[in-house]
Amino acid sequence: QMMKHAWDNYKRYAWGLNELKPISKQGHSSNLFGNIQGATIVDALDTLYIMEMKEEFKEATEWVGKNLDFNVNAEISVFEVNIRFVGGLLSAYYLSGEEVFRKKAVELGEKLLPAFNTPTGIPWALLNIKSGIGRNWPWASGGSSILAEFGTLHLEFVHLSHLSGNPVFAEKVMNIRKVLTRLDKPEGLYPNYLNPSSGQWGQHHVSIGGLGDSFYEYLLKAWLMSDKTDEEGKNMYYDAVQAIETHLIRKSSGGLTYIAEWKGGLLEHKMGHLTCFAGGMFALGADGAPNDKTGHHIELGAEIARTCHESYDRTSMKLGPEAFRFDGGVEAIATRQNEKYYILRPEVIETYMYMWRLTHDPKYRQWGWEAVEALEKHCRVDGGYSGIRDVYSNHESHDDVQQSFFLSETLKYLYLLFSEDDLLPFEHWVFNTEAHPLPVLHKDDENKEENQK
């Protein structure tokens, strides 16, 4: 019902545009996608399919075939277009078998290739997809590319090679690995900034939240998606987790485990909503953990899940803030006005879903249901769902944006949390960082394809 409310209103007021403004009842365009349109449609395809919203899926498929156009003169975020558009199209293809999705995914992948034309092959953050000219975010340390951005292409690009028969996509992302393996890591940690010209780190800031997050997720998932043959990805992941545990994971005086941010050796005792995905990641990676550490990784996931639940529970609206702190006598509470907002983000619910599937402890479903009730109470408006400016306030001030990831991730993870485990089972599917399921590439798939050729 929530998906239907979000989708029907998008269709009514913003069809074909990127996102919906549910209060003003009009379209919203984010500069992340340049002039590419239809972000909500492409992001929601697989959710519609999984929820068996067949009519809606059919309409969305027709729109993609007729109107999804990449021949635009516009600068886009390589990372956002990859995870939402490429990821969304790939999943829609693997779930439905509709050829239009495969064709569009490969076409878009080709348009993104010029981003890798740098001295090191570390891609630019921003690319004009008509001219092929790239650059980095002006705010990024010393002209650097961002770890979470260039580190979150691997799953999609491996699948682009698999579906197109063109090895170039996989080569581009394997080269990123090579550059990272060669570099010295301060204390075994990966800084958030890497200069694509010099191949050297920018500022030594480390975060498992924004700017870093999905890089770590993709190391683990690259190994899982390769049917556990990508040993390099596996080793990089477990080494990184070891360094994160040593240098970033701390326990508050009240007993809450959190992941701090590292700035040139000094810890900032703050955790972002984005960092809350890590609970699910630790649990998902527990099975392959070295030296009998499986139980420890599950426990770590459970502790992060609890901390993130507390960040929700300690607000008036029972929805979590963008960032929360563990200093100055507060625990799991946002202390700055510009960190008190909630933009329909999925990460906490994502962790509940993984923890539920991997432990079947009923509290994760209970926590998920609390989030549903809070979303319905505070974020649902006549025209869809809106983010909130201050989750500690007693009255809603809506931000008037229904993010595409609300349909792609938040609602999908909630649906999976309350579904049976055989819907998109983990042994066959890996979710990209936008919650788009991609199939595990089994070794015999390769041979089957070869024989078919």
UniProtKB/TrEMBL annotation:
GO molecular function: calcium ion binding; mannosyl-oligosaccharide 1,2-alpha-mannosidase activity
EC number(s) given by UniProt: 3.2.1.-
Involved pathway(s): Protein modification; protein glycosylation
Topology of this chain in the membrane: Single-pass type II membrane protein
Active-site residue numbers: 80 (proton donor), 213, 322 (proton donor), 347
Record-listed Ca(2+) binding positions: 433
Disulfide-linked positions: 276-308
Keywords: Calcium, Disulfide bond, Glycosidase, Hydrolase, Membrane, Metal-binding, Signal-anchor, Transmembrane
EC main group: hydrolase
Classification via PANTHER family: MANNOSYL-OLIGOSACCHARIDE 1,2-ALPHA-MANNOSIDASE IA, MANNOSYL-OLIGOSACCHARIDE ALPHA-1,2-MANNOSIDASE-RELATED
The protein, known as: alpha-1,2-Mannosidase
